[in-house]
Design goal:
Length: 228
């Protein structure tokens, strides 16, 4: 880990811990988040952990904020005891709601059942939230499933759609444009204004996708609307 502090706005600094995405980064990012929250206290306006960085906004002068970051992160150790919440998200994997499922199978030489098995057998850490409220970037998927984003994004992706982009995976919390390779859909509400914190997922949480049948998906409140 190499600490770098970069200016991103008049009141915001980017605390960079790593240069590449890796699941092993998360215990360090979470530990840094805890230390910075405690160190800045009432002066902290916002703290956003991500794959390799934390964006920190405070009401302190930049020089003072830099000094406080350095003090807070001196001797930082990975927080291996904080693994966040564990979520099991049921997914109906089917070409009718995940049109890239057969495409991924053909591209990799795997059967659709093998693609589903590879995607659902791993537990994925949530690296960051972004793009849309409640959209959790997770990874890393099996290398055989790594797929580039669509060259032309869809104008409308149905809520709950589960997709893959490169070695990341995610589920769309609401209807939106998107260019990920869709392989299934979940009925789980990922963003809810009535929920404390709004988002089901938080950085540091872990997610396991569980394959369910169409009947189970529908019983959970699933929507079989086709992608636009």
């Amino acid at each position: 880990m190499t600490l770098r502090i970069e200016v991103v706005a008049i009141d915001s600094l980017m605390v960079r811990l790593f240069d590449r995405i890796d699941e092993a980064n998360m215990p360090w990012v979470l530990a840094a988040s805890q230390r910075l929250s405690a160190a800045f206290g009432k002066h902290l306006l916002d703290l956003v952990p991500s794959y390799t960085t934390l964006m920190l906004q405070s009401d302190l002068p930049p020089r003072q904020a830099r000094a406080l970051i350095g003090q807070a992160l001196t001797g930082l150790q990975a927080d291996t005891g904080n693994t966040g919440q564990r979520h099991e998200i049921p997914v109906w994997y089917d070409a009718s709601v995940g049109p890239e499922l057969p495409v991924l199978a053909a591209r990799t030489g795997l059967s659709e059942a093998e693609v589903i098995r590879l995607h659902s057998q791993r537990e994925y850490p949530v690296f960051a939230l972004g793009f849309a409220p409640g959209f959790g970037f997770m990874g890393l998927v099996d290398e055989r499933l790594a797929s580039p984003r669509l060259s032309t994004p869809r104008k409308r992706v149905a809520a709950g759609s589960v997709g893959i982009a490169e070695r990341q995976t995610a589920a769309y919390p609401a209807v939106s444009p998107g260019g990920w390779n869709l392989i299934g859909r979940t009925a789980v509400r990922l963003f809810d204004r009535e929920r404390e914190g709004y988002s089901l997922l938080q950085p540091g949480d872990r997610v396991r996708f569980v394959a369910v049948s169409r009947a189970e998906f529908m019983a959970l409140g699933g929507d079989v609307e086709r992608q636009a």
